[in-house]
Amino acid sequence: MRRLRVLALVVAAAAALTIASSGGAKPVPDASWTSFGHDQQLTGFTDAPLFTAQVKGFSLAWKAALAGPIVASPLAARVPNQGLVVFAATEGGNVYALADDGTVLWQKSIGTVNANGNCGTYGVSSTGVVDTARGVLYVVGATGMLHAFRLTDGSEAPGWPVQVVSRRRTEYVWGGLELVGTTLYVPVASYCDAPDRHGVPAEGRLMAYDVTNPSAAPSVFDPVPGPDNLGGVWGWGGVSVSLDGDALYAGIGNAEPDVNNGDSDSMVELSADLSETFGVNRPIASVAGEDVDLGAAPVLFKPTGCPALLAANDKSGDLIVWRQDALAKGPYAFIPLSDGVAAFVGAPSWSPVTQMLYDSTATATKANTRLEGTMALKVTATCGFTKRWFTATGDGPQPEPLVAGDLVADTGGSTGGFAVERATTGVLVWRYPTAAATLSPLIEVGGELIGGDYSGQLYAFLPER
Asked: Which CATH superfamily includes the segment(s) 17-464?
């Protein structure tokens, strides 16, 4: 199973506040985006009070040239005495902190690795996570070292870094890191399923570190029992967390051999300490040589009047929905959205306002022309799903859409560019071309739309009315 160069963080969602001014009460936008998907359920949703139906487009606020392609999601948080700070990591093995005008505040190089099997050279694909309580950014790259950089100046916190992957040319952290309290979850997969020079495959797993004691051995969940048999956790978002924090959900990749081995190709529900498996479902039987695994992290959501659900893409092109309380019973809904020509490895986002899921890399045909883009699905009165709209946005693998207020923002994938649509209708509001692919998800923070491209350009846009 050869992996596309896609990937690449996020844990707290700030509520919309108001401030008094001469013009009356005005909305204040979110002050942080600290992990992949904006919250532990990976919804990709923010209230974004400035992103209303009155927005007619966006203008470039600033742009910064970073060293290396951007695949991981940008992050942002307010740092004492520095205001809003944007954090970005690149495939050049560089980690940046930037002021909200694009000025680089600090930069750290954590190295690159030329992977086995001609898989390419990698730096950082995994989205890190900002720990505002301890004032650090956790990030891991191809060298297998997990760092904790102080938000203020990029210095390493005491006790860090720690080695989380030792077979660094074979095993790789693709998925985003997730922080729950003092527990940091790190998903491990491989670069492109190529074995090492001795023919030994990677060992996929999920590890849990205590950030107050980084030198302690982590707890480990091995989806496919036994050593060196793949079963990696691939999803852009890593793992998602139940609202009560007691359970984790993760999509598992294929095993070696690639036929119904352990929890391969399955969605799993785990205890927070990784000691217990609450539920497992393999929605499609594995077939030797066919790449049908769940290369995506699930979004957790609860439509009004319906059971709590989770949804994830399989690589073949299906959106699969399960009940959170009945995962082992199999899919609640099975919805074909893509022809699978481009691996369906993104993830849906969820808006509690519109009661809709939004999924990228969906396909449609218009005037005998194949199109790829974002599909919106509305939850019905009977807790089913109906396709509401489709907007062509690009081509190739595209990450989770951003749902910001009344708008949906997505990327063009391998064709590059950014796009914004009305969340309820899919009407195109704005497009912005880029010179390179856009494989990193967009975020909204401080009233700005922030995203990166494969040439290393990081952009910030402001809404126009």
From this structure: Quinoprotein alcohol dehydrogenase-like superfamily (2.140.10.10)
